[in-house]
Each structure stands twice: as C-alpha cells, then as structure tokens.
C-alpha cells in the first residue's frame, strides 16, 4: 500500500453549489493543455442564430440573475438541443437557448457562456494546480441539487430527479449509517442554525450523532479529532451572524458572491493544514453538487443504471429516465500532501487513460477504504471509480511545497 494510504485516517468532502467545470476552471487550459478546459473557440447558438462564444468575463456576483434553470427539463435542453433529447451523444449546444427561456433577453442569455480567468479564483485554481484536478468528474444525474447530493450520501437518489425533499425508501443505507455500523465515525458539519443542512431528511434520524456546526469542524481540526469521514457544508444564505454582522452565503450558488466561497474553501483547507498531524493523514475533496445551468463543453457519458426509473411525468420531458447517463461536468479537486504537484486526472477526452467519476464515487471511496468493500452500496456505487490511488507519493510533500492562504 502506498505510504499516503498507510497514514490516511480522515477523508473530508467539501461540497459547493451549482458551478460547471468550464465556468470555474476552464481557463486553466491556457496554463496546462492537459486540463480539459476551454480553447476559446467554443460557442452555443443564441436565439438569433448567431454563435455566442465563451468569454473570460465572469464576475463574482450580479451576472447570473435570475438563477439559471437546472431542473431536469432545462438540463435536457442544455445537453441535447436542437434535438428533443436522447438517444445520441449530447450536443452541449442548448445552454444559451435554455437561459433565454427565463427572461427572453438575448444579451443576458449569452452570459451563461462566461467563465473566470484563473487569477480571479486564486484559491480554487491554486489548489487545482498544487494538487489533483479531475477532468472527468460529473454530477450524478442531469438535474438539480437534492437528487445529486443524495448520490453523495446514498449512492442513489431512489428514483428522484427533482428538488423535492424525499424520505428514505430503502434498501440502501447512507454512507454515514454504514460507517457507524462498521464501528467508524462520520459527521456532517453544517454552517450554523440559520443556514443548516439541506441534506436528505432521513439523515436527521441520527441527529446529533452525525451532525455538528462548522465552528465545531474548526475546533475538531485544531484538536485533531476529526471523524474518519467528514462532509462539510457551506453557508447557504446571507443572514445575520451571532455578533450582529452579516454572514455572506459562501456556497457559490448563483447569484451568491463567489469570493465569499473562495474564502470558505480556503478556511477549510487552512484548518486542516494548520494541524501538522491532521494535514499528513487527511485527504480533502472539494467538489460541486451540479453545474447550475452553466455551460460546459464535455458531453456527459453513459453510466451504470442505478436500479430506478423516473417516469416521463417525473422528468417533465415526455420520456422516462433510467439513471443510465450522468449529468454535467463539475469542478473537483483532491488535496493531500501525498499527491504529486500539478496532477491532472484524465477524463473522457483521453480514451486510453481516461477515468470517469461522479458523486457516487464518494461513498464508494469511503466504504472501500474504511469498511473494506461497498457490497451494501447501490448498484451505481458498486461500479464507481475511487480516487485514493492519487495519494501516490512515497513521502509527503514538505510544508514549503504546499500553499497557505491569508484570509
């Protein structure tokens, strides 16, 4: 076993909200052509029939208002336009058309093609260049938040494709319940009482055993007593903090301030890095739950069906969905001092070495490492690639070779 896995004791997942890979990290292609980002030649047709090109003009806030539609019917259009839907490879040509549907404003609809220059996102891009960035991490279904986050917790959404809160239908247990049954520890750290967890209500059955606040996460990092598996959630709303000051939403969901999310990502990283022992034995995955309706150029691949079927009425598209293809590509970065600097994990662009990951890869990885198998996981989870092999160095990188962010 590689030395990094011999010393690994903690896996931490930070899941942000509603941004695509190209939107956040596409500009890195100019720095490293191994990164499957943007050449600048990509475009989508607008409703006047003219090409709307990708442009490095994304702003921190005020640009994606209204919030781009990311419900199942809208994502279907984003993927398959001008066709009505599958079969066939997604064209990735319907993002501008879909955003136009919300305001009937051609100029606004073209902004769905905007992306960030790397220097505008110094935290995310630094971590991507210092550790491992995934070219091929896709959200689990072409739909919204709740069902995609369910795949991170259960390896399935139990047939759900909407934002509706739903109850556990069995037979698959959450990764938290499986960890507890196997004698391990696991916890979800939500931000605070005003911005609490948006996870599946079934997980509340174990409250308070698997729930704690973000302040507790910071304390647990200082004390070096993180559970074996931690899932960290950002602040989902602007609200008044305990001292009377304003707490800005840090989830990066449009149209929340992206810089607030950058600070939050840095705070999670810094908290782990500041404890030398914890830093040495922790792997941190930073990932986004879904693309939020924002452009990405890589067609999502087919995948193992998850055993459920959403009806044509449930999908709102006129045809059923067998959970046999993934959603849009999202940013994903794995952080550990045992990862070689500037690792790029090839995706679907590399037919020889390419690897495909999705949110069910999270419980698959946690279960495989701590429990020893994922035999009790959902069908999709059992076939998912896992990511801890990226901790491949024989010796941990020195602190001088790892960034520290000043907040």
Compose a concise summary of this entry.
By secondary structure, this protein is of the alpha/beta class.
Total domain units: 1
**Sheet with most strands: strand arrangement:** 7-6-8-1-11-12-4-13
Strand content: 5-15%
Indicate the CATH topology: Alkaline Phosphatase, subunit A
* Spatial extent as radius of gyration: 20 Å
Q: What is the mean predicted local confidence, pLDDT?
A: 93
CATH architecture: 3-Layer(aba) Sandwich
| Main sheet record | 8 strands, mixed
Could you name the ranges where pLDDT drops below 50 across 5 or more consecutive residues?
Answer: none
CATH superfamily: Alkaline Phosphatase, subunit A
H/E series: HEHEEHHHHEEHHEEHEEEHHEHEEEHH
Number of strands: 14
Q: Please give the CATH class.
A: Alpha Beta
Question: What is the topology?
Answer:
Blueprint: H1 3-7, E1 10-16, H2 21-25, E2 43-45, E3 51-53, H3 72-80, H4 95-103, H5 106-110, H6 122-130, E4 132-134, E5 137-138, H7 145-154, H8 175-181, E6 186-190, E7 211-213, H9 214-223, E8 229-232, E9 239-240, E10 246-247, H10 258-273, H11 276-280, E11 282-288, H12 312-315, E12 332-335, E13 343-345, E14 357-358, H13 361-371, H14 379-383
Parallel strand pairs: 1-8, 1-11, 4-13, 5-14, 6-7, 6-8
Antiparallel strand pairs: 2-3, 4-12, 9-10, 11-12
Helix pairs in contact: 3-4
């Amino acid at each position: 076993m590689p030395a990094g896995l011999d010393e690994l004791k903690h896996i931490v997942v930070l899941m942000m909200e509603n941004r695509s890979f190209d939107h956040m990290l596409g500009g890195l292609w100019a720095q490293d052509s191994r990164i499957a980002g943007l050449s600048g030649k990509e475009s989508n047709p607008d409703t006047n029939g003219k090409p709307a090109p990708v442009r490095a003009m994304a702003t921190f806030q005020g640009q994606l208002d209204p919030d781009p539609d990311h419900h199942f019917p809208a994502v279907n259009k984003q993927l398959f336009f001008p066709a009505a839907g599958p079969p066939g490879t997604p064209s990735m040509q319907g993002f501008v058309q879909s955003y136009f549907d919300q305001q009937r404003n051609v100029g606004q609809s073209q902004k769905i093609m905007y992306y960030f220059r790397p220097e505008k996102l110094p935290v995310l891009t630094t971590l991507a260049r210092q550790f491992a960035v995934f070219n091929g991490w896709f959200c689990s279904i072409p739909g919204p938040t709740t069902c995609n986050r369910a795949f991170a917790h259960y390896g399935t959404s139990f047939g759900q494709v909407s934002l509706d809160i739903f109850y556990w239908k069995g037979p698959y247990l959450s990764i938290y319940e499986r960890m507890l049954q196997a004698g391990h520890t696991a916890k979800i750290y939500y931000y605070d009482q005003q911005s609490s967890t948006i996870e599946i209500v079934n997980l509340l059955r174990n409250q308070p055993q698997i729930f704690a606040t973000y302040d507790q996460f910071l304390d647990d990092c200082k004390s070096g007593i993180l559970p074996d598996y931690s899932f960290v959630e950002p602040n989902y709303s602007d609200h008044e903090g305990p001292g009377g000051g304003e707490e800005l939403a840090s989830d990066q969901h449009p149209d929340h301030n992206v810089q607030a999310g950058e600070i939050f990502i840095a705070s999670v990283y810094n908290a782990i890095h500041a404890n030398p022992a914890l830093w040495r034995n922790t792997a941190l995955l930073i990932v986004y739950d879904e693309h939020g309706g924002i452009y990405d150029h890589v067609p999502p691949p087919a995948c193992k069906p998850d055993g459920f079927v959403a009806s044509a009425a449930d999908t709102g598209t006129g045809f059923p969905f067998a959970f046999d293809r993934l959603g849009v590509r999202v940013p994903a970065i794995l952080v550990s001092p045992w990862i070689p600097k500037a690792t790029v994990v090839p995706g679907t662009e590399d037919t020889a070495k390419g690897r495909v990951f999705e949110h069910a890869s999270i419980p698959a990885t946690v279960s495989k490492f701590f429990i020893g198998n994922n035999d009790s996981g959902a069908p999709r989870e059992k076939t998912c690639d896992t990511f801890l092999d990226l901790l491949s160095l024989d010796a941990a990188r020195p602190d001088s070779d790892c960034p520290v962010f000043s907040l």
